[in-house]
Write the structure tokens for this entry.
Amino acid sequence: WLVLMIARKYVTATTLLVVAATPYFVKVRPYAWCRAVLRHSRHYFECCEIYAPPAAAHDDGDADSEASSSSSSDPRKPFLLCVAPHGVFCIGYVQLAIDESFSDVRFLMARVLYSAPFFNFFMLRLAGTFGCATADEMRCRMEAGENLALVPGGFHEATLHSHEVDRVYLKTRKGFVKYALRYGYDLIPVWCDGESATYRNVWQGAWNLRLMLNDWHVPGVVPFGAWFCPILPSPKAQLRITVGDTIKLPEIPNPSDADISYWHQQYVQAMLKLQANGAAKKLEMW
């Protein structure tokens, strides 16, 4: 904007400023018709399907029984959908967010995207199912008992994106497990098979530098999608989004490192099982 002003491009600069400021001054409530329109975006792809386990009645047995996996979450407990892989622009994640089956779930995203004016206006205000994936907001929403979703791999996983293999960034991502234990949330793993086919990450390599940039919330991916408009995903992608069995966690107000590591491993194993059942591509875990 400043460069445009210096160059005396006043009309362009003013237009840009108005577009950027509009989401912060124009209050737009979420519209059902907008969500319906967004749901039709799945027809853009050769295939886009969501598979979820059938609903099962809650077991009213002994509440002190050992935590275990089940085909459905305890209706009295909130849950956290943990989605992988990130891909370039989280196409599978967005498809979940606009699906009516998950209308009671708040989908969390990076602050950079959450604060982007254009994205903020059309996705947050009109679709109305998103939130910011900061520690403070997660604590606030978990204290309120909201059902949440996030992509644990974040920007780092986007940077590692490859068209040839599935890559996830999970080895050191344990914060979401800590919060789930602290606030009594169940974890539900979700695998987006075909996410790697939505874009090509043109630049492969220099991982240490690019992952370091991610630590400063700077994206390190160079995407190329559809041949007719590279910023759009490839329409040839076949997305099959599988919602796994619920991992029932105990509520531990002050979880130890051992508690966090144990339940993190349970999530990783469940995610690996989903990937193995649906994907033909090799999986790399970072």
Q: What stands out?
A: The radius of gyration is 20 Å.
